[in-house]
């Protein structure tokens, strides 16, 4: 079913509002930036801001939900005979590549890492994301995967992503992120029982 004009417009405004918020957070600091300032910079009222985001923190994570939906979609269309770990690896590495091609995404990651309230929120978002991905692994056409194994694979993949992200951030972005991801997924690759 195609998305209607109203929903496309809402999504575009959310994306623009999130981009403005991230720019202001990077410029002034997360705690120092008010919702009023974000709304004013976007040409909206504070009340309008809250129609798009329940909290200021949610503006930082606007792309996370879209990314999660894309990951679920990409997992569902992987070849049915592909091993779940291989599907996770391909889809998540490609997702990370898209995210890090955007300078704003990198700024968002640095903001999250430097702001305690955002670090707490990212854990909540990741928990929701892991549940969706795990269910998707079980729901893939032809999948013969139990919930325990799907959860384990999803959590291992998340650990690979987190470890690569932390190493990349520690290097100040100097280390090849794709190589870190490849190494992490390689080290955690399941061996046949």
From TrEMBL:
Domain of life assignment: Bacteria
Asked if the keyword Secreted belongs to this entry, the reply reads no
Query: What InterPro entries is this protein classified in?
Result: DNA-bd_HTH_TetR-type_CS, Homeodomain-like_sf, HTH-type_TetR-like_transc_reg, HTH_TetR, MftR_C
Q: Which GO terms describe its molecular function?
A: DNA-binding transcription factor activity; transcription cis-regulatory region binding
* UniProt cross-references to Pfam families, sorted A to Z: TetR_C_14, TetR_N
Organism of derivation: Stackebrandtia endophytica
In terms of PANTHER family, this protein maps to:
HTH-TYPE TRANSCRIPTIONAL REGULATOR RUTR (PTHR30055), MYCOFACTOCIN BIOSYNTHESIS TRANSCRIPTIONAL REGULATOR MFTR-RELATED (PTHR30055:SF238)
* Residues covered by the HTH tetR-type domain: 11-71
Q: Which residues form a coiled coil?
A: none
Keywords, in A-Z order: DNA-binding, Transcription, Transcription regulation
**Name assigned to this protein:** TetR family transcriptional regulator
UniProt keyword Ubl conjugation present: no
């Amino acid at each position: 079913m195609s998305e209607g004009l109203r929903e496309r417009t809402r999504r575009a405004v959310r994306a623009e509002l999130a981009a403005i918020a991230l720019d202001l957070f990077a410029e002034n600091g997360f705690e120092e930036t008010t919702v009023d300032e974000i709304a004013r910079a976007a040409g909206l009222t504070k009340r309008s801001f809250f129609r798009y985001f329940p909290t200021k923190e949610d503006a930082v994570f606007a792309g996370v939900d879209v990314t999660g939906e894309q990951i679920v979609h990409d997992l569902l269309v992987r070849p049915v005979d592909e091993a779940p770990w291989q599907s996770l690896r391909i889809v998540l590495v490609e997702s990370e590549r898209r995210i890090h091609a955007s300078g704003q995404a990198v700024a968002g990651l640095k903001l999250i890492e430097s702001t305690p309230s955002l670090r707490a929120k990212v854990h909540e978002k990741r928990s929701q994301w892991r549940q969706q991905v795990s269910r998707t692994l079980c729901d893939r056409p032809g999948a013969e995967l139990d919930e325990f194994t799907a959860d384990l694979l999803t959590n291992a993949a998340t650990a690979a992503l987190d470890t690569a992200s932390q190493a990349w951030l520690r290097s100040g972005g100097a280390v090849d992120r794709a190589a870190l991801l490849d190494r992490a997924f390689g080290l955690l690759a399941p061996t046949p029982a």
